Amino acid sequence: MMDINASDELFRQYKITRDVELRNKLVENYFYIAEILAKKFSGRGVEYDDLLQVASEALISGVEKFDPDMGNRFTSYITPTITGMIKNYFRDFSRSVRIPRRIYTVAAKVKNQINEYYKIHGVKPTVRQLAESLGLSDELIVEALECRATVSLDQKVTGDDGEADTALSDLIASDKDNFEEFEDSESLKTEISKLEPIEQQVIALRYLQGKSQTEVGKILGVSQMFVSRAERKIFEKLKDALS
Q1: What is the DSSP letter of 42?
Q2: Would you say the pTM of this structure is higher than 0.70?
Q3: What is the pLDDT at residue 16?
Q4: How far is CA 23 from the centre of its chain?
Q5: Low-confidence residues of the chain: pLDDT under 70
Q6: Closest by alpha carbon to 148, among 94, 202, 90, 87?
Q7: Those residues with Cβ within 8 angstroms of residue 125's Cβ, 6 or more apart along the chain or in another chain
Q8: How far apart are CA 57 and CA 64, in angstroms?
């Protein structure tokens, strides 16, 4: 791997000559970044080789556009560039996922039922309430809700207050879903008090009573997966509010 000064000089030469061999030498020198980022996002529904291809194309494009005289290091410039391209690929990939017609039909019914319930009660119904009102199983309701959520990573995750606050694409790279990042402060307590009742229940059961997600699910009448996703949404809400 060449040092920074040699790299910058090579970038200057390429900027003038646009020599393909110089470009390829720069791409080879920084290819490790593409590999690292492709590995970081692998295992999330897209093959590593496909992600590496996307990252490589972003790297080549970045090399062609980079200007070393702008005062930035190439590593600082190319990392968010490649990350953005990979996230865009996830968005495009998600749009190509076809939802089974049966689940799509159930999802439409669930959406209508949620809207009607919210108009009357001011809160969203639980999975159990949806299942009883539609005459379906809890599992099918959860599956329908989750399939609707994976249609596009551009869409917002809607909270129990009916407001969309977090894009799914913002959650892709999140490796931590706990409350250890937050300081024990009055601000945190205030934001928790603003959450919907069921969200406060999840926090109380999980982090005050120390119950597992499965135990919380049984108490609230939802699946473990539902609790897991609820925790993730709560965490993102608090992170946004306290950032």
Answers
A1: T
A2: no
A3: 93
A4: 33
A5: 1, 92-101, 104, 146-188, 242-243
A6: 94
A7: 113, 114, 117, 118, 133
A8: 11
